[in-house]
């Protein structure tokens, strides 16, 4: 991914001046986060400092209210805050290319059913909904999974296996609240919110597994089984399809993973991207992935599925999602929901019911796959033209996990590249947010995700091109001016004035 010789900056001037330029460029090859302006801005943001070694130690910059500890922000929140420091506003968001937030475009796409435009509100819907959700919607979810993944199987899901929750994070939080003092396995890289979940719910003891790019970030099932035996893992948490790498556990690997749920280990799978599968053959369009296909007994297998309208139905603003699992788990989730979130929006639950009708879902799913595969291929082509080839192209989700390590320093790490793109009114997510690191102790330069950014091709095509044009401008600037132009002069906050002073308000 390094700039080819023909495209590198020509260095005018005397040999002495050229030598100084080379030295200045070399000085930008940082080895530690304390040497990098972008990394220091990150560490100074509330919640991202290295955690104190003793639990009773108080950081006065973060414990601003007695007894309150700042949890730190997810990648999207941090990046949005940094974008606002660079002039981004939601009122004028059309001027920016937001390739960071994990949200699909919500408008019409070719050959898909029409978008919902109105929500009926019968008088009964103005009351609280049950914390497990509206029964008719729970039945619709169970029916859809049985129709799609469990035809011909003796054990079938019923409404008692479904809990409706106000968003995926709420589902994760409800689950975390009912997990006991156990070792919980997670992978790196994975979904950013897991970091906050594992940090906030102290009874979960996090045990990391680093996935290897040499095996396309594949989860080694045999190693997982050994870890269960040797480390006593009780819970496995993973996204599938995988955020941010765009890979998927499927076939026999998924079957073997689900099998662990019959052998004393609880398997929690975040399946929000289960429709975003990009087949190579025409006949495979319209197929999707779920662990539900391999569950034998829906009430005995300890397999938990989280999904919802957010990604597959392209309705993130509805905040209607679900957790599927053994019915005794659903009872526990109802109780944790009563003190955590109070339940999902009642009218929106009722409006969601017809959207889960299997024949409508079949049309929606195929249209989504064709549209998003075309966008994926377009982005990969444009990156290739910029000599930013993707090591492991995504086969699922709407994310591209882009390795920057072959670029010249300091552009070869995600935080610095992110800050340079902000100057071009474009947002991506630095890879370090997918390094699930609850204590925040690791030198960021040692993170296996340090050299990456996540690009979302969820937005409409015109936004994608706007953002990719910004990539091209950064690389053009690197060729013309060398590396001295990068790694510095970042706005620290929204209140920074023209002299670079920060006004604390």
TrEMBL record:
Q: Which Gene3D superfamilies match?
A: Aspartate Aminotransferase, domain 1, Type I PLP-dependent aspartate aminotransferase-like (Major domain)
Residues spanning the membrane: none
Gene Ontology BP, a term: amino acid metabolic process
Q: Which CDD domains match?
A: AAT_like
Entry-linked InterPro entries: Aminotransferase_I/II_large (IPR004839), AspAT/PAT-like (IPR050596), PyrdxlP-dep_Trfase (IPR015424), PyrdxlP-dep_Trfase_major (IPR015421), PyrdxlP-dep_Trfase_small (IPR015422)
Parts forming coiled coils:
none
| The keyword Transferase belongs to this UniProt entry's keyword annotation | yes
SUPFAM superfamilies this protein is in? PLP-dependent transferases
Which cofactor does the UniProt annotation name? pyridoxal 5'-phosphate
What keywords does the record list, in alphabetical order? Answer: Aminotransferase, Pyridoxal phosphate, Transferase
Question: Which Gene Ontology MF annotations are present?
Answer: pyridoxal phosphate binding; transaminase activity
Q: Does the keyword S-adenosyl-L-methionine apply?
A: no
Q: Where is the Aminotransferase class I/classII large domain?
A: 98-470
| Signal peptide start-end | none
PANTHER family xref list: ASPARTATE AMINOTRANSFERASE (PTHR46383:SF1)
Protein family: Belongs to the class-I pyridoxal-phosphate-dependent aminotransferase family.
**Protein name, entry field:** Pyridoxal phosphate-dependent transferase
Q: Which organism is it from?
A: Mycena alexandri
